Amino acid sequence: MSAPHPLGEHLRRRLLRARAHGPAGEGAPLLRGEGLEFAELRAYAEGDDPRRIDWAATARSGELQSRVMLEESGLHLCCAVDTGPRMLLGRARPLRDAALAYGSLWLSAARDRDRVRLVLGSRPVDPGTLRGPRAAALALRRLAAPDAAMEHVIDGATLAYLDATLAPGTALLLVGECYAMESLLEDAHLARLPLRRHAVARIARDPWSDGLPLRGAALLRDAAGGQPRTLWFDRGAAARHAAACAAREARIVERMRSLGWRVRLFDETATAADLVA
């Protein structure tokens, strides 16, 4: 990549630390290494590097204590982004722009020989033999390409593909929109993905979830299917819409968090920094 994202290194360290402590549902730590990032203290075991002994902790506990360091390479990064027609909606700018910001930051965390994968809707982008920043650069070019805004919607096929192909310990970012995700809440793959992976989701809100600006009869066209329909809007309709959006969002967040996803909602004002906040 021509220039690393300023938040990429911060995100990388967050992901390394999350990997070291294991995905949701697994208490045993995963990878340890000889990096510079401290992970935890544990009792000294035969074969440990004596240089890793923490003498201050040893004096406090009365037993030899070793510093465990995070491994600095070998991340598996995957980003699955919904670029379907609903992601082109937005009041100030398209939701897709915020989704691209999230995806760009996630992929920018790649270093050295890290494995990188991008999925647009249910279509994977094959990096071939490329790894690390070169694979991330290829994925970013594909993510930003004009034709990436075609109907690449996250659906059951997306979840099935991710569940079947992502290795344990993969750091997965899924960026979708609320209407599609609501239909997938009972999908078995959605429940399995966080079991052995660090699964993060950012779900786009309905741009008009806080209130409809329309009044009276209005001819609307469905963003997904394109069908036109005339609807009547008054204060009651606006209130019902806002209530339905709030209930949908709460249902998505509650269900995904119960499965082990780290999930938050976003709107078109979101920035990449929100991902590591």
What does this structure look like?
- The protein has 8 helices and 10 strands.
- With 277 residues, it is an alpha/beta fold.
- It has 2 domains: 32-70, no CATH class; 76-276, Rossmann fold, CATH 3.40.50.
- The strands form 3 sheets. It has a 6-stranded mixed sheet, with helices on both faces.
- Helix 1 crosses helix 3 and helix 3 (95-108) packs antiparallel against helix 4.
- The protein is elongated.
- Mean pLDDT is 83; it is low at 24-36.
Comma- or semicolon-separated keywords:
8 helices; 277 residues; 22% strand; 6-stranded mixed β-sheet; alpha/beta
Share in helix = 25-40%
User: Sheet bearing the most strands, described?
Assistant: 6 strands, mixed
- Residue windows where pLDDT falls under 50 for at least 5 positions: 24-36
The averaged pLDDT comes out at 83
**CATH second-level architecture of the largest domain:** 3-Layer(aba) Sandwich
The number of distinct β-strands equals 10
Structural class computed from helices and strand pairing = alpha/beta
The helix count comes to 8
- Overall outline: elongated
Radius of gyration: 22 Å
Q: Name the CATH class of the largest domain.
A: Alpha Beta
Strand content: 15-25%
Spatial arrangement of strands, main beta sheet: 5-4-3-6-7-10
Distance between the termini: 24 Å
Strand and helix order: HEHEEHEEHHEHHEEEHE
What is the total domain count? Answer: 2
At the third CATH level, what is the topology name of the largest domain? Answer: Rossmann fold
